[in-house]
């Protein structure tokens, strides 16, 4: 409602004076304020805050009159009455000085500001005033209170008299009434005349006149409070009657609220009792109380002292209270606390030291409530420092607090909007974000034709069109719009503001005219003709209707009330406005769909229809009157009407199912009469008019029934004009904000209308009906006192006060409604409502909040609850799929003592755990495990933990697995008091689960001898050293660890049997599983390859590795001399992979990059080198298979994205190609096909993973798996390494036999060229198998932590050599080879830049 902004300001006084101000009072127009000193009266101008005139009493007169005490302005601001301590009243006249000004604005040259505008002097210059003492009146008694009443001044004196003095009259116009003769009673209907006061020393301590109640609220010196009203127009003792407030005996001060007819009495106990007058009996009726609670202010709630001052804001929406001990607190009209300076950063410094509260002697509100002027108490230390600075301008203790307020306070038609709009003195705060970013294409056309969907605003289809929830709720900052300075200078202060339904345009109204701003174009539109602006004064507020601004104004030229409509897109000029004359002054204006509703000063309500017409260039809107409703019988004073609006909300009386279309119409008028919500419905008891009749508008002329009171203490009303059949429960509702009491929401269900009261923690400023959200704002503070450490700076306002900011906030209210419906046994309606909101992102939180609140209330209740709600709520939540998560989240956030009560209602946690497992919701099951750990014996926890652990292993939820390992160990070691944390959602790692590849070294370029010695003596392996690896370092012989190991071994065995090597690698890497040691044990059992074909296919598929493919161009050349032409692909395959270990130079630890050579170098290498290499191996003829393409089949190169289980070559026709190197020749197209084949490798990540697995299997001695991976990688070096191990070490004969049986026959159709390369090794294998060497079992040594680095392209880091017959290389092949070598070098450089993997020999 109202919010503090920034730091307060302190006024500088140009006059030297040793006196301190003691009283401050603004004039009725709030353009000036008077400051009273003990012997001086000063008049200040409000904007800018400058001193205009000061009257200093002469010493002789000052001693006669005594110090000044109070001041009161005449209603027309032409006189001030000042009371003194010795019982004198001094009347000062302020004669207007025409065309004399003390201060004028000075603009730079070339400035667009013009001084020739009408009212320029009055608006922009501080006038020159004179103060003349006109009259002195001696009442011969101490004056306790002054109060202006129309043309009279009411004075209370300490001798128990009430004096009525005319402002301009003589002493004969004075009336004195003895209070002892005024009868007092409990109410005005009392049969007895009423008891008199009956005491000699009774007098009025404080009083204030209430115009709408026509009487005085008074506080007597003995603490009693009452209300005195004249029984007739004559103000005499015989015609006065008083009523008591029976419950108040310690009153200190009083302030009245004219708009809501409330009297706020301050009490000595620090509370404020608010009363109203019962209109039927005339008795004082208690309304509510304003008091600090021990929950919010435990240190000071009962130490504030008596209430010192109470001041209502100019718009009567908030009240400011201060106490004798100091401090300020701001409350809404019905008791919602908004601000209090007795707690938080106001009361404590940043180092925790307590501050002294600000003591206040006097305070008064500025214009429109944007400022609060405050005079500090005399004990404040900053007064004393001011006495020492005689040469400088005096810093008096006058502070100016600045406020921003909701537009609802002055323009209640804002209640139809779903945006929060705050208005400050010179700026607007919007929560709708940047319209340019959130704009939807549907809403871009400013001239689009008016239709129902547009009419219902941005949420017509049930979704947020113009701005999403993220825009409304996404951050806590405001979109701040600075009001145009040209408009503000001549029209300050801003009185009304409004925002359109799309949140893209705002309009503001100042003293004269109006202006509007587009958030899309970031531009203001002002009247081009300044005279038109200055001759219209908006009286009843303004509202948006599509692209039109509707406002009620008074035409100063014609002295006529008018209703005007301006088009946003046209120039701001009366020529483009539609103007309708209105009979009486308009007080309030609101728009509902296509109807404008006016409330006028004669207590009548006018309904107008508004229609858009496209005539000429600019569309216009026309208005015609529909209906007039007189409320004179029901409204005692037109000023009491706070808001008026139309709504489709109605009771179901008289509505038949035959006319469902009537639900969309404006059914009822809602009138807030001084906090009393009154509803007027259409009277459908008479004959109904059908749609088929000639005049369809006739239905709108139905009369209204007599008014019905819906609610009391209503501050704001929200309704919506949109329709959504899915969420009709939310949309066909009325929101009532009732201050500190409750926030009530009546709902429409079938034929009943019910009221659902509930508390919310924020002050509501807007309601998002379809999203079940309340939007609001809240004050926050920031301390800057640490910036000022010097002693001289301690009195800075920045040190004394925190910096105040306003933040956006929101709150869900759906759980309150659901709970209230369940309390009323309306479960079916609650279910309908909940299902309609189930798609909201915070719906799970709604269910959790409801369960938590009911549980807390019932489980902590000291008395037994006859009809507990928790079982009903639990049953309700089971209707939703989020039931399991809701229960466990609620339990985890609730103390353990309440768990039994909770699970007695929702079910056994063991059953809920099993439901989670069945639903595959493992994270929720883990949360239930923590519940079970605390509620069950350890054996039950272990049993359920084992179930969850196995399931998590199967699903690859490694994070959860790590938690479960820790959990199981904790159970085993008795550490049940430290339950595991709730696992977070598992995120896939960038390396597919093998996190530590980049920190490992995998060396494949090792000689057979070196590998053999390392294999049998010192096995080394780098395992991850993260948290997951620590579990293997201690408690290894613990039974609990053995229990966990058994489960891990079982899972690893299953993965190996199902040939899920990729999953096995992830499993080992994520959980720190000692894979090598386990493989050594399982080498002859689970780690054997049973089906090589199946294993090969499965690995190709799992690692997205393409099958080998021969390019078609290599076999499409014509035959020559009856012999088949050689396919170059086989030569490339051979030279790519034929890297022998026999001729390998060993390099331990040193980078072998300098001797890294491209495998293509073998083609152009010297003949002598090839001869040397080939002489070591047997001379043989290689066979090569290639498909015939006679059937039109096209051969495609396999890739990682195009994989089949078998190569595309298999289904083709095959023929034998004789190898003949002497007739070798290459064309350019053949070279391109060859380079394409080189690109048919698998993904880089898969290559790294395969090499890692190869390293693991090699060290574990699982040679058959090494062969499979070597075949997939197509590297003869791997096969050579395997055979070298088999020759030189004791290897199981079965493994050798297995490899020998499988290799030549299994892959004949897939890897013929590659098998040709390793044919010598296969022959050696036959010899080994024939020898049948029996293996010796060897045990692996514990792995050592040696950090290494791996290279995925290991074959590039070795010297290359070739097996095969001696080729005769001609010039063509030599050139082609050089060309290929250059291309390969480029590829090598590219691949080297891709990954940072180095290969070193370990």
TrEMBL record:
Residues 447-458, 1377-1386 have a biased composition (Basic and acidic residues). The keyword Electron transport does not apply. It is found in: Cytoplasm, Cytosol; Membrane. GO terms for cellular component: cytosol; Golgi membrane; Ric1-Rgp1 guanyl-nucleotide exchange factor complex. One of its GO terms (molecular function) is guanyl-nucleotide exchange factor activity. Residues 1359-1376 have a biased composition (Polar residues). Its main location: cytoplasm. Keywords: Cytoplasm, Guanine-nucleotide releasing factor, Membrane, Phosphoprotein, Repeat, WD repeat. Belongs to the RIC1 family. This is Guanine nucleotide exchange factor subunit RIC1.
